[in-house]
Amino acid sequence: MRKRLTKWRLLSLFAALTLVLAGCGEPFLSTLQPAGEVADMQYDLMVLSTLIMVVVIAVVTVIFIYVVVKFRRRKGEENNIPVQVEGNHKLEIIWTVIPILLLLVLTVPVVSATFKLADVDAIEDKNRKPEDAIVVNVRANLYWWEFEYADYGVVTSQELVVPTDEKVYFNLESNQDEVKHSFWIPSIGGKMDTNVDSNIEKGTNVNQMWLKFDSKRADQAGEYFYGKCAELCGPSHALMDFKVKAISRDEFDQWISEMENSKAVATTDLAKQGEQLFEEKGCISCHAVTPMDERPAAARTAPNLATFGERSTVAGVLKHNEESIRNWLKDPEAYKPANKMTGTYPKLNDEELDALTEYLMGLKVTSN
Amino acid sequence: MANNHNSTNPKVDLVYRRKKNAEEMKHQVITFGMMIFLTIVAFIAVGYDGIGEWFKVPFIITLAVIQVIFQLYYFMHMSHKGHEMSALFLFSGVFVAALTVLAFTTIIWW
Amino acid sequence: MSTLTQKKGVGAVLWDYLTTVDHKKIAILYLIAGGFFFLVGGLEALLIRIQLAIPNNDFVSAGVYNEILTMHGTTMIFLAAMPLLFALMNAVVPLQIGARDVAFPFLNSLGFWLFFFGGVFLNLSWFLGGAPDAGWTSYASLAIQSEGHGVDFYLLGLQVSGLGTLIAGINFLATIINMRAPGMTYMRMPLFTWTTFVASALILFAFPALTVGLALLMFDRLFGTAFFDAGLGGNTVIYEHLFWIFGHPEVYILVLPAFGIFSDILPVFSRKRLFGYSSMVFATVLIGFLGFMVWAHHMFTTGLGPIANAIFAVATMAIAVPTGIKIFNWLFTIWGGSIKFTSPMLWSVAFIPSFVMGGVTGVMLAAAAADYQYHDTYFVVAHFHYVIVGGVVFSLFAGTVYWWPKMFGKMLNEFLNKVTFVLFFIGFHLTFFIQHFLGLWGMPRRIFTFLPGQGLDMANFVSTVGAFFMAAATIILLINIIYTSIKGEKVGDDPWGDGRTLEWAVASPPAEYNFKQTPLVRGLDALWVEKMAGNKGMTPAEPLGDIHMPNGSILPFIMSLGLFVASFGLLYREDYGWAFPLIIVGFIITFGAMFFRSIIDDHGYHIHKEDLLKEEKGGKA
Amino acid sequence: MANVEDKLTAENFPASPEKATLEGKNKFTGFWLFLGGETVLFASLFATFLALRESSAGGATTQELFDIPLTFAATMLLLTSSLTSVYAMYHMKNFNFGKMQLWMIITVLLGLGFLILEIYEFNHYVHHFEFTITSSALGSAFYTLVGTHGMHVAFGLLWITTLIVRNARRGLSLYNAPKYYVASLYWHFIDVVWVFIFTIVYLMGMVG
Ligand code: HEA
Ligand code: HEA
Ligand code: CUA
Ligand SMILES: [Cu+2]
User: Fold this and answer.
1) What is the model's pLDDT at position B109?
2) Is the Cβ of A205 closer than 8 Å to some Cβ of chain B?
3) Measuring from each residue's beta carbon to the nearest atom of ligand 3, which residues come in under 6 Å?
4) Environment class of residue D198 by beta-carbon count within 10 Å: exposed (0-12), middle (13-18) or buried (19+)?
5) Rounded to the nearest 10 degrees, what angle do helices C191-218 and B84-106 cross at?
6) Do C208 and D26 touch (CB under 8 A)?
7) What is the largest CA-CA distance in chain C?
8) Which of these, D8, D34, D10, D29, lies nearest to D18 by C-alpha position?
9) CA distances from C458 to A188, A254, B44, C423 (A)
10) How far does residue C248's CA lie from ligand 4's centre (Å)?
11) Which of C288, C291, C296 minimizes the C-alpha distance to C313?
12) Distances in whole angstroms, Cα of residue C111 to Cα of each of C84, C166, C175, D183
C-alpha cells in the first residue's frame, strides 16, 4: 500500500514536471494553449512581447555579467581610483532610441488588437436575426453564473454552451446589489468585468465582448473548457468556476431546441417524492427546473437546475455524483463559504436527501 | 537677510516702499473690480435665456479660469518673484487635477 | 538640553523618543515601526504561501484568507515599505544636503505618529472582530458589501496614516527646497535626495486622491451616502479611478527612492561617479511625471472602451524608456569601476537584473489586449513582487546595511549580511519566477485555494518553498542586528572608506545639530571632491556660531492619539453608546493640541558656541 | 538671519516679512506645497461631482434646487473677503498692525456671513426638497464637495480668529508675520475653489 502510494506520487510528480517543462499548463485552462481566435490574438501578443522582453533581458544580462566579472576589485588594486566618467551622449542616445523602437514594434499590434477585440457591433445591429450571431447574456451572481440565450428565451447555469467556429457575443451583467465579478475563459480569451449595476434590460453599464471557439482544438481540450471568476468577490471567489461546452453549430441548434421544449419530469417514485420535496422545502422559490424561466432576471436568485443531471459539477466545484449532491444539500456552507443558499431552507433528513438527489439527478434536457 | 532694502537711508527707502505698496494695492482693487465684473457676467449669462445653451458652459468656465488667474497672480502674489517653486507645484497640482477631471467627464462609464 | 549622550533610564529614553523632533531619531522610530510591520506583513505572506502550498488546503478558511491577503498587501505597502523608505530619507537626506535639520521638525514628528497610530489602528482589527477583507485595493462594490468592521478599520487607519505620509512628503519637499547648504545646487544633489524630492512630490499629488477615495467609501459605509450605490445613481467605477489615480503613482513613490539608494551605493563601491548624472535626474522627473498619466492600466478589463485602453497602454509603455535609461546608466557606472562586493553592493547589483525582469513584465501587462489575459492572475502577482521585492525591498536591505553605521555608529556583521543576501535572493526568485507561469496557466489571484487536476499543484508548492528561504534570510538579519548591537564595534565617520556624499563627512551617529559649521559644497559628490583635492573634510561655509535648535514636543503624539481615539468612535458609532462621545473626545484632544501648538510660542533654543568648542575638545576622541 | 527678538520699526521691517526668517520661508514654501495638494483634493471631489451631477435618482435635480440670488450673494461675500484680506497684507507690509488686524476682522466677518448663507442653503434643500446627502448620488456628491469647501471656510475662520486674538496684544513680529501671510494665502485659495464651485456646481447646474 505504502509503496503503491509513493510510486503513484512519483508518477504524478513526473507528470507535473513534464508539464512544467512543457510550460503550457492544461489545455482546458491555460492561456498558453489558446483554442480560439481571441486567445490566439492575445497569445500572439504575448509571444511577441515576450520575444522583445527576452531581447531586453539578454542585452542587460550580457552587459551585467561582463561588468560584474570584469571590473571586480582584485588583489593589489586597493588604491586604484578609476576614471570618473561623466557620461556619454552617444551611448545615452542609443539606449533611449532603441527602447522606443522596440516599443513601437509592440504598440502597433497592441492598439490594433485592442480595437478588434472591442468590435461588438453585431450585438447592437437592429436587423440581427438570432441565427446570425449568438448573443449570450452572462449574469454573475455571488458564486454562480447564469447564461441566458435571450433570443430563444433559454436560461442555463454553471455550464455555458456555445457553437464553435463562429463569433459568440456576450453581454456581461451583475445586479446592483451584487458585487463585481469578472468573466474569464483562459484558453478562449481574456476576461471582462461584470460591473455592478450593469443591467441588460435597462441597457445600462453593460460590458460586451466576443469570443470564438475553435472546433478542432475544442476536441483536443476535452469535453469542457474551464471558466473562472477573476475579480475578488468574497470568500468563495476561488470557487466561482464554470464550465464551457463548445459544440458544432448543428449540435448547438439541436441543443437549443431541446432546451426550448424541455419539461422537468420525474420518472421513478423516489424522484417524484423528490419533486414534491423540492416544492415543499421551498427550493422552487429560487431554483427553476425548466430552461424557459419566465421570471425577470433579478428574480432568478439561484442556478437554473434544468440540466443539472447532465452537469459535470455540483455548484461549480464539486464532483458530479450523488454523494456530492447530498453533501451540498446537507451543508452548502462547508463547500462554498458565504454562498447564498446556506440557511434558506429547512434541515433535510437522510430520506429527504435521497429523494432530492434522485430527483435532481434526473433533471436532464438532452435526449441521449 | 532681514534687510532686503539696499538703500543706505532707511527713511527714503521706506517712503519708496510705501508708495510701491500703495500702487500695488491700487492694482489689487482694480483686479477685484474685474473679478466682480467677470462674476456678474457669468451669472447673467446663465440667467439669460437668449444665449445658446451650448455656449454657456465653456463660456462661464473660461470666465472662472480668468478670474482664478487674477486671484493667483495678484491676490496671492504669484506674479512676484520668489514664487517659482510655488508656481511649479501649484501647476503640477493643476495638471493632475485637469487629468482627473478630464477622465471623470469622459471615460467614467455610463 | 540633551546634547551629551549620557546614560539615561528607560523612562527618559522613552520620553525622549516620544517627544523628539530630531530627524535622526525620527528615522530610528520609522525604522523600528516599519521593520515591525515588515515582519507582520511577511508573516502574513508566509500564511498565504502555506495555504496555497497544496490544492484544497484548509490551513486557513476562505474568509480569513481574504483578511490575510488584504492585510499583507496593505501592511507591506503602507506600513512597511513606505515607512522604511522614510526612515532612510530622514536619516540621510538632511545630511546629504548639508542641513542642520528638516524644514518642519515638529511636523516631521507629527507625520511619524500619525502613520504609527494609523498602522496600529489598522492592525487592531485582527483582535476586534476581523480584519478588512476586500483586497488592498478595497474596490467599492465588495468593500461596501463586506460585513463587520474590517473595511472600516482599513478606511480609517489608512486615512490617518495617509495624513502622516502627506505631511512627511511636504516636509521633505520644503527641506530640499530651502535647507540646502551653500553650493548645493539642484544639480549637485545626490540621487537619493533627488528621488526623495520627486517621490515626495508624487506623495503630495497622489495622496489627496486616496484621501477622497477613502472618504467617499467611508461615507457610503458609515453614513449611508450613495457615491457607489447604483440604486441611487452612484457608480463604483469612480472609486476604481480614484484609487488608481493614487495607486499607480504610489508604486513610483516606492521605487524612485529605491532607485536613489542604488544610485548612491553603486558609485561608492565601484569608486566611480554616477554615469550620466543629469540624465538620471531627468529620467527620475520624467518617470514621476508620466506616473500620473497611466493609472487606467489597472482597469483595462473594467470596460472603459478601446480608445481609453489604447491611450493608457501606450502611455504606460512610455515609462520603459526613462527607466531603461536608468538601468543602462547604472551598468555603465560600474563599467570601468573598481567593484568591491560589500553586502550593500551585492543587493545593488542583484537588483539590476531582478528589477529588469519585473519591469519588462510590466510592459507586457501594459499591452492592453494581452492584459485581458494577465489581469488579476498570478502573472500580475509575479510582476509586482519582482519590481517591489526586487526593487524596493532589495533597496531597503541595501540602504539599511549601508547607512546602518551612520545611524547607529556600528557596522552590521558582513558575513551574516551576505548569508541573508544569498538566502533572500534565492528565495525571491524561487517564489516569484514560477508565479508568472501560474498566471499564464490560468490561476487567478486572490484565491484562497485551488483544485487539484488543473496543473497548478507543483508550481505553487515551489513558490511556497521559496517564501521560507526569504523568511530564513530575514531571521538571520534580525540575529545580526541583535548581535551587532551587543558586540559591534564603533566606527568612524566614513566606515565604508569610499563615501562620496556629505553624510559621510560627519560623525557616526551624527551630533544632533548634524554639522557644527554648515559645509561649503563644491561639486557633485561633495565629500569625494574634497577627498580628491586632498582635504581631510568639508570646508565650512560659515564661522562657528550658536546653533539654533527646535524644542522637542509631545504634542504630535497627542494629536495623533486624538485621531486614533476619534477613529474608534467613528467606527463604533452605531454599535455603542459611548462611541459618539468618543468621537468628540478624540477631536477635542487633537484640536486642543493644535490650539496649544498655535498659541504657545516656540522659539527653540540655542547651542552656544562655547559649548560646541568644549565638546570638540573634551567629548570626542 | 534676522533675529526674531530684534526691535522692529517701520524702517527696519523687511519688504517681505513672511520670508524674512528661515522659519518663515519654510512656512511659506510648505504652505504653497500644501495648496498644490489641496488642488488635487478638490479636483477629485469636483471630478466625482461632475460624474454624478445627473444622478439624482428621481429626487431633486440641480435645476430644481439652485437659485441665482442666493449663490450670487454668497459669492459676493467671499470674493469681497478675499479683497479685505489683501488689504490686511498691505498693512502688514507697511507695518501697520492695527489696520491689519482690522481688515482681518472684516475678512472673518464676511466669511462668517458666507458660512451662514451656506448653512441656510443646505437647510433649505433638506427641508424643502428632501435633498440630503443620502437621498441620491447627486446629493452625496454635492454636499461632500460644497461641504468640504464649507469646512475649509470654517477652519479658516477659526484659524484667523485665533491669530487675531492671540496676537492682539503683541503686535507684529517676524515670528507671526508668516502666520498671517499663510493664513491669507489659505483664504485666497478657499476663494479660488469657490470660483469653481459657483461656476461648475451652481451655474452649470442651472444650465443643465
Ligand atoms: C514598485 C512598484 C512597481 C513598479 C516600479 C512597476 C512598474 C511598472 N508596472 Fe506595475 N504594478 C505594481 C507595482 C509596480 N509596477 C503593482 C503593485 C501592481 C498591482 C496592483 C494590484 O492590482 O494589486 C502593478 C500592476 C501593473 C499593471 C496592471 C496589471 C493588471 O492588473 O492587469 C500594469 C499594466 O500595465 C503594470 C505596468 C507596469 C509598467 C509598464 C512598469 C514600468 O515602470 C516598468 C519599467 C521598467 C522596465 C521596462 C525595465 C527596464 C527597462 C529597460 C531595460 C529598457 C528597455 C525595455 C523595453 C524596451 C521594454 N503594472
Ligand atoms: C511592499 C510590498 C510587498 C512585499 C514586500 C511583499 C512580499 C511578499 N509577498 Fe506580497 N503582496 C503585496 C505586496 C508585497 N508583498 C501586495 C500589494 C499584494 C496584493 C494584495 C491584494 O491582492 O490585495 C500581495 C499579494 C501577495 C500574494 C498573492 C495572494 C493572492 O493573490 O491570493 C502572494 C502569494 O504568494 C504574496 C507573497 C509574498 C511573499 C512570499 C513575500 C515575501 O517577499 C515576504 C518576505 C518576508 C518575510 C518572509 C518576513 C519573514 C518574517 C518572519 C520570519 C516573521 C518573524 C516574526 C517575528 C520575529 C515576530 N503576496
Ligand atoms: Cu466572483 Cu470572484
Ligand atoms: Cu500601475
Assistant:
1) 62
2) yes
3) A 140, 181, 229, 231-233, 237, 240
4) buried
5) 40
6) no
7) 79
8) D29
9) 24, 41, 72, 21
10) 4
11) C296
12) 14, 8, 14, 21
> Coil, helix or strand for A217?
helix
What phi and psi, each to the nearest 5 degrees, are found at residue A244? -125, 130
Q: For position C422, what pLDDT does the model report?
A: 97
Q: Tell me the average confidence (pLDDT) per consecutive run of 10 residues in chain B, 110 residues long.
A: 48 77 84 89 82 80 88 81 87 93 79
Distance between CA atoms of residues C75 and A272, nearest Å: 56
Which residues on adjacent β-strands are paired with residue A153?
Answer: none
User: Across-strand partners of A174?
Assistant: A140, A198
Cell of C621: 576622541
- Between the CA of A140 and the centroid of ligand 3 the distance, in Å, is 8
Tell me the three cell numbers of residue D192: 479660488
Contact check, Cβ <8 Å, B110/A204:
yes
- For residues A53 and C361, is the Cβ–Cβ distance under 8 A? yes
Say which amino acid occupies C105.
P
Burial label, C167 (beta-carbon count in 10 A; 0-12, 13-18, 19+)? buried
Residue pair B79/D26 in contact by the 8 Å Cβ criterion? no
Please indicate whether, in this complex, the C-beta atoms of B96 and C205 are within 8 angstroms of each other: yes
Yes or no: say if A162 and A149 are a contact pair by the CB < 8 Å rule. no
Query: Could you give the CA distance from residue D53 to residue D203 in angstroms, rounded to a whole number?
Result: 12
Helix (H) or strand (E) holding A213: none
Domains of chain A: 122-248 (2.60.40.420), 269-361 (2.60.40.420)
Give A198's strand partners: A174
Is cis: bond before C509, omega within 30 of 0?
A: yes
Alpha-carbon separation of residue C530 from A208, A262, B21, C267, C539 (angstroms):
66, 91, 47, 16, 8
By C-alpha distance, which of A205, A134, A210 is closest to A175?
A: A205
pLDDT at A225 over 90: yes
CA-based nearest residue to C134, from C71, C82, C193, C42: C71
The ligand placed nearest to the CA atom of residue C294 is: 4
Kindly state the cell numbers that stand for A24.
Answer: 503550457
Q: Please state the separation of Cα C533 from the chain's center in Å.
A: 37
Alpha-carbon span C293 to B89, nearest angstrom: 17
Among D38, D39, D41, the strongest candidate for a mutation testing the C interface, having the largest count of C CBs within 10 A, is D41
| Strand bridging mode A242-247 / A225-229 | antiparallel
- Take residue C123 and report the three cell numbers written for it: 492592525
Are C370 and A45 a contacting pair, CB within 8 Å?
yes
Q: Give the span between the Cα atoms of C518 and C100, in whole angstroms.
A: 8
Helices C579-599 and D137-167 meet at what angle, rounded to 10?
A: 40
Contacts of D187 in chain B (CB under 8 A): none
- The answer to whether the CB atoms of C104 and D30 lie below 8 A apart is yes
Answer yes or no: are the C-beta atoms of B110 and A205 closer than 8 Å: yes
Hey, are the CB atoms on B104 and D51 less than 8 Å from each other?
yes
Element (H, E) at C418: helix C414-440
Residue of chain C whose alpha carbon sits nearest to that of D165: C599
Which ligand is nearest the CA of C393, by number? Answer: 2
C-alpha angle C215-C220-C226 in degrees, rounded to nearest 5: 115
**Residues C516, C522, C524: CA angle, nearest 5 degrees:** 105
Collapse the DSSP code of C599 into the 3-class scheme (helix H, G, I; strand E, B; otherwise coil) and give the result.
Answer: helix
Residues of chain C whose pLDDT is less than 70?
1-7, 616-621
- Render pLDDT for C438-455 as a digit per residue (tens, 0 to 9): 999 999 999 999 998 888
Chain mean position to CA A140: 12
Q: Which pLDDT value is given to residue B3?
A: 44
Whether the CB of C108 is below 8 Å from some CB of chain D: the reply is no
- Please determine, for the modelled complex, whether the ipTM score is greater than 0.90: yes
Q: What is the CA radius of gyration of chain C?
A: 24
Query: How far lies A253's CA from each of A156, A182, C173, in Å?
Result: 15, 28, 68
